[in-house]
Design brief:
The protein is mostly helical and 75 residues long. Helix content is 57%, strand content 0%. The protein is built from five helices and no strands. The protein is globular.
Length: 75
């Protein structure tokens, strides 16, 4: 959530201010940004409104592409 954290700092300066705007505790925001709790759809919608994130950008901010690579060992 590095890109999301950056936008929060850009728009609200602190996670605490963002949490207040979201009507959530700072702890809840921290857990979500540290991937310990999942974002609910209504939370994503509200965050996008507050952070001015376009619908087309939601994936960039809330969903990471996980790519696994397998290493081939030489014989």
């Amino acid at each position: 959530y590095a890109k999301l954290s950056g936008r929060i700092k850009e728009k609200f300066k602190t996670q605490e201010r963002f949490a207040e705007a979201m009507n959530m505790s700072p702890r809840s925001i921290s857990l979500k940004l540290n991937n310990k709790r999942e974002w609910k759809q209504n939370e994503i919608d509200k965050a996008c409104e507050l952070l001015e994130i376009q619908t087309s950008e939601i994936g960039e901010f809330f969903f990471a592409n996980i790519v696994q690579s397998s290493e081939q060992k030489s014989a």
